[in-house]
Amino acid sequence: MWPHSLVTTKLADTSINKNNAYSHRCPVFATAWTPEGRGLVAGNSQGEFTLWDGYEFNFLTIWQGHDQAIQSMTWSNYGEFMVSADKTGLLKYWMNNMNEVKKFQGHKDAIRAISFSPSDLKFVTGGDDCALKVWDFETATEERALTGHHWDVKCAAWHPMKPLVLSGGKDHKVKLWDARTGKCLDTIHGHKNTVRCCAWLNNGNAFVTGGRDQKLKLFDLRRTNDALVTYNGHKNEITAMAMHPHDETLFVSGDYTGAIMFWNVSAEEPVAVRGSGEQGAHEACIWSLSWHPLGHLLCSGSNDHSVKFWCRNRPGEGLGPHKMIEGGALQSPNMSHLQPDHVGTLLQHVQVRSNVAARLAAQTGDAYDELIAEGARYASKADWRRAARAYREAIALRPDRPEAYANLGNSLN
Q1: What is the mean pLDDT of residues 173-200?
Q2: 332 or 33: whose pLDDT is higher?
Q3: How far apart are CA 349 and CA 326, in angstroms?
Q4: Range of weakest confidence among 34-38, 215-219, 288-292, 363-367
Q5: pLDDT digits (tens, 9 = 90+) for 40-55
Q6: What is the mean pLDDT of residues 214-240?
Q7: Phi, psi of 257 (to 5 degrees)
Q8: Phi, psi torsion values for 380, nearest 5 degrees
Q9: In which band, very low, low, confident or very high, does the pLDDT at 328 lie, cut at 50, 70 and 90?
Q10: HEC sequence for the chain
Q11: 0.85 exceeded by the pTM?
Q12: Listed residue (254, 332, 243) closest to 295, CA to CA
């Protein structure tokens, strides 16, 4: 499925807490879908959790989860527990029925990030005390501290398959850590200001970072000297980002003005934009973005006190009335139904992907990457037969890698 059909730019609902004795209208700092996708949990600056229905987006319940502002929360990979943290550094465990089972002091200051290991046996936290900590989940004990950031740690993400931790902070640095030893493996000076968000691609071969310098950057794990792609589009500080749960080529970002942008990893310009001044868009900073487990809905939590649910447009509606970036729209390689200007847009996009693949192959010297680059080069010339042949050779060389399968399918379409 091409990312064009996964972009959720249509506003489905806006949900706001009632302002009464039981709830407060206040900034929403964290959001997380329940593992089965039937509800969404939102944490706000008053320490309250609000549970919203995942089908009709109605209010279900509210409860006081923390005494201070909830800064971050995430579910374990297997969906058995949720871990939340507040601005005092307190961590809490919750069962999937939202019963609290454990709490303990994790950091001396606000905890900005929580991320589970692939097995759920460990998790990592990062906070404003400049520290990253690896925890044993069952015993709630600190195993080791990852020290090296010289200012607040604003984001952290555990590798989807390996004992690697990615982090970014107020010291403008992105770091890679060995979670087993606590050793810093690499320091990347790719941003000129605070790094606010970071995330791995689903295949674990690359990661995206974003920050106050209004830039998003894609780095290859095997060679981090230079960014593979720098994404331009945001006009203000980037405050939130989320990778699509199933399509590793699609991710979304939000900024301080309330704008939401959808990106394909191989294109420097956004696929689609929901600007902050548009009808139905957020009016203030977006603190959290969360994809539904199935990937057909997106939730955003904002400083304007609201939680917004975004869905895909119906067939024939396009991507909605928002601003479209020329060259950003993605179509199938089957061009028989496209107008000449659309064909040019498609080939422009494929050419960008070809350049990125060629740059990666030159950096790594890997035979698989060279075949992917060769296929992308033929695709940029609309030579789908030779492109398919290159992708088949790549599959024969590395049948465990998913990129060639997806590219082959697109070429055959």
Answers
A1: 94
A2: 33
A3: 10
A4: 363-367
A5: 999 999 999 999 999 9
A6: 92
A7: -85, -10
A8: -65, -20
A9: very low
A10: CCHHHHCCCEEEEEEECCCCCCCCCCCEEEEEECCCCCEEEEEECCCEEEEEECCCCCEEEEEECCCCCEEEEEECCCCCEEEEEECCCEEEEEECCCCEEEEEECCCCCEEEEEECCCCCEEEEEECCCCEEEEECCCCEEEEEECCCCCCEEEEEECCCCCEEEEEECCCCEEEEECCCCCEEEEECCCCCCEEEEEECCCCCEEEEEECCCCEEEEECCECCCCCEEECCCCCCEEEEEECCCCCCEEEEEECCCCEEEEECCCCCCCEEECCCCCCCCCCCEEEEEECCCCCEEEEEECCCEEEEEECCCCCCCCCCCCECCCCCCCCCCCCCCCHHHHHHHHHHHHHHHHHHHHHHHHHCCHHHHHHHHHHHHHHCCCHHHHHHHHHHHHHHCCCCCHHHHHHHHHHC
A11: no
A12: 243
Amino acid (1-letter code) at residue 288: S
Length of the chain: 413
Strand partners, 316: none
Query: Interior CA angle at 189 toward 183 and 192, to 5°?
Result: 135
Nearest Cα to 66, choosing from 88, 51, 50, 48?
Answer: 48
- Sequence-distant (6+) residues with CB within 8 A of 287 are 27, 28, 29, 30, 239, 240, 301, 302, 303
